[in-house]
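Entry 14. Structure prediction run on the chain below.
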Amino acid sequence: MPAPVGVTRLPVPLDLPATLGCDAVGVPARYGFRILSRLPAKGCVYADTDWWWWLVPAGSDLDLTWPLPACYAPGAVIPDRRPRLIHHPDGGSPYTPPIPLYLLTCQLTGIAPGWSVPPQVSSAL
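Output returned:
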């Protein structure tokens, strides 16, 4: 029987302010290079042998259904497989913009984006 895997929180580099809080989006490693190479803006990216993780602002799952096999990790708490930082952003933000990451993840997994529709508000005008 394999040993249980603990959890760890992905650390934000000290030189990058994470004022919006941090969550993470993980994908199996087989998608990692394709996503990294196609994103127009990239935040901190971590990897281990099986998964790649992107830091996104907290709440980036609001009104989105991240497609399987992607994994959304609130608080950037992930299985502890000793991930390491493989991409440090050039700018001053640790975040990858979540919408381009979401759309690219949907495209690569062959799953149509799932947007929640806000309720209609009638106008008194």
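Helices lie at 29-38, 98-109.
Filed with the rest of this week's runs.
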